[in-house]
Structure formats: structure tokens, C-alpha cells
Specification:
Blueprint lengths: L16 E2 L15 H13 L5 E3 L11 H15 L5 E4 L5 H14 L3 E4 L3 E2 L3 E2 L2 H14 L4 E5 L9 H10 L3 E6 L4 H12 L5 E4 L6 H7 L3 E2 L6 H12 L3 H22 L3 H8 L17 H12 L10
Amino acid sequence: MNGALQPGSGRAPRYRGVFPVVPTTFTESGELDIASQKRCVDFMIDAGSNGLCILANFSEQFVLSDDERQVLSRTLLEHVGGRVPVIVTTTHFGTRVCAERSRQAQDMGAAMVMVMPPYHGATVRMSEERIYEFFAALSGAIRIPIMIEDAPVSGTLLTASFLARMAREIENVAYFKIESAGAASKLRELIRLGGDAVEGPWDGEEAITLLADMDAGATGAMTGGGYPDGIRAIVDAYASGRREDAVGAYARWLPLINYENRQAGLLAAKALMKEGGVIACESPRHPYPPMHPAVRAGLLETARRLDPLVLRWA
């Protein structure tokens, strides 16, 4: 390996680097906390995020109303004000609803939309033909790139050959966040099959497979939002051709990455931000359970060994 982060296509990707997910901040009573939300975004930009993603699963999008999605999209895109590009997650089972959400995000200033294949509950899954039609219709409704999120939560098998076909045949399908098992192998095959059409093969899942995914050709990483500075240390070294430095940085930050991925989950970023004074409240919205105190203590103990910006930004 030469350590240089290579795009999956012959052209330079429009977006690359570290695009962490912005957590949604609530008050203790479960209302949106807009003041904390803005501080959260300011911290994440100051910590080195190349871009941001909002309304993802790690944003607790599944507990938000449609009106709240609108408020958060408009508020955050206006507050970011072009400092970094913002990806808006617009996933919905309905083709028309997803297209409308995506048009609205585009009109508000989103750089890209991220969408999972249509699914509902534990059993409702669509055929490849229907998934293809879904993304073709979505592409026809907007002008900005689409990132397909290949995540286990959808329960939908998206083969590398099918993803590559959509990249080649559907105009705006250009980015792919791969979080399924064997992510590096799937990224490598997607890049091989998709060629120039795969503009952005990306890593996800809190960077737990980041090094292997970059070795496979990933050009972007969508992680949790608590320590973009740590993820940048890994990605920047790799992108500049210093693979051994990237390996060292990955080894240094891996205990925290692992703790977030395997123990603390989507509440990790908010716990770190609350501890560091970035946000006022780390609580999720009911019925999602709060983090166990012992898990929180372990997370903070692991983080303090690394001195991330989140614990001293405020």
C-alpha cells in the first residue's frame, strides 16, 4: 500500500474526508435545544470536520417529527452558512416523500442527500427492481449527489454489483456509505465494478473498520460527532501517503472508536459534548434509554487518555 487515499473514480470526488454525524440535542423534558444544537455544530467544525451529516440514525432521526426535521434542517444549514458542506439524510419508505424531502434539503442548501433503500419494520423489503426505481425517481427530482447508505438496520441486501449498476446508470447516485459486514471487501468490489461512476466510496459505522476501508479505497468517513479531530489524524495521514502514521493514529484512537461502536452507541457524542460543556443535556428522547452510568464512566475514562478537543472546547 502506498498509503495515498485514492478516489474510487478517475475524477476527483467533490466531497471527501471526515463528515461526522451531528447528534440532535434535546432538553431534559425532550424538546429541541436549538442553542445547544448550534454550539454542537460549531464545535464539530472547530474540531476539523470536513463536512457534516444531519438527521441520520445517529442523530436519532427516528424520534423526530416532520416539522422538527424542517426546523433542524433550516436552522443548521443557515447556521453552518457554507463553512463546510452538509449532507442531509432524507430516508423514507415512500418514493414521493423521499423525493420531496430531498428537494427541500437541496433548496435549503444541502450539498448531498443520504438515503437508505426503502424498508419498513422487520419484514417489509423491496426487490432490486423497486429499489432501482426508487433511486432513479429520487435522482430525477434533484440536482445534488445521492449517497446510498448500506446499513444493516435496513435489513436489505445491496450487492456490490447492484450498487455499481445504479452508480453507472442513475445520474446522481455517486456516493456509497458501506457499513455492512465485510465492508472493505465490498468497497473494493464496488470500486472495481463501478469505475468512474463511483465518485465517493465511504466508510461508516463509527470508523471501526476505517483503516481496512481506506486500504480498500474509501475516500470519506462518516463517523460519530464526538471527536472529529481524532478521525482527522488518521484520515489526513493516510491521504498524504503516510500510511504508517495513519496506522499509529488509528491504534491510538481505536479504544475510543471501539467504545463508541460497541458500548456507548449513538449517545457517545452527546455524553462527550455534555462532559465538555458543549451542550446542556445529553439525554435521548423517550423511549430510547439513557446511557448506563458505568458505560458513561468508561467512555469518559477512555476519552480522557486522548485529550480530545470535545473535553476542552468550551
